Amino acid sequence: SPAGGMLLVLVEQRRQIDLAALSPGSGRLLWTQPLAHGDAGLGDVRGALRHSAACLPSTAAGLAICPTGTGITVSLNLVDGTLLWAHDARNPDHSNAPTRSRRTGLLRPPRGDSGLANLPLVTGNQVVLLSPFSERLASVDLETGRPAWSRGREGLEYVAAASGRTLLVVGPHQVEGIDLVTGNVSWQRRPGLVSGRGVRLGQARYLVPLKSGRITCLQIDTGREVGLSLPPSHAAETLPTPVGLPARARIRPGNLVVAGDWILSLTADRITAYPQARRQLARVQAELAADPEN
Hints:
Layout: E1 2-3, E2 6-13, E3 16-22, E4 29-37, E5 58-60, E6 63-67, E7 72-77, E8 83-88, E9 121-123, E10 126-129, E11 136-141, E12 147-152, E13 158-162, E14 166-170, E15 175-179, E16 185-189, E17 199-201, E18 205-209, E19 215-219, E20 225-228, E21 255-259, E22 262-266, E23 271-275, H1 277-290
Antiparallel strand pairs: 1-2, 2-3, 3-4, 5-6, 6-7, 7-8, 9-10, 10-11, 11-12, 13-14, 14-15, 15-16, 17-18, 18-19, 19-20, 21-22, 22-23
């Protein structure tokens, strides 16, 4: 993550998790700050489940909010390097080791899909946390780390975006709006099975990719659907199919990013570009203004 002329990266060596600052031009190490110590290393069986989980710091107001992949989130002052607070979302015994199913004896993986980046979200003076080692969605104060509210995770996959009053969170088949002050659910929609991490569009809307092949656009404050893409055409079937992957009858959108007038979707086997409607609408409006009888 870029911050204040530095590149911030979380590193782990011998179970020690550090925040490192690099020079953007040369990659030279500027400084490191120890944050946490893991119960198990990435090479251990108990720690192997952390391999695929994204672990990136979020920055705001001169602070770095750092998930460590252990269930502990640490806040660091980037001006003087001091540690401000830590939030522990682990089990009551303070262990981040995966538990075993009583029925099968197999290790339970961390909660949530590791393919969906789930990072601390800073909104106003709040930090919203949804740890893979916790059954709770929590909001804490940005400066002190004091809890504001928490609620049951209830199958949520990731924290998506926030407006001035509403937090948008996404589950496997539902999207919810949560009041930022109270933590209560303001609205819920079930647009279909979610196929990736969505992206914010402007200040008030959020795009959610669906396994049906469509992308739905929701208002963050109300949950109202204000747009829905058509399923992609079968033209993509003329493209070569990657070795080892089945041929697809339709393109399924994955993790989304906004790039100018395009929405880009990344899946395991392809990048797909979706044009936004804004340019086409502007053209139609210009034609109607020139010829109202068109």
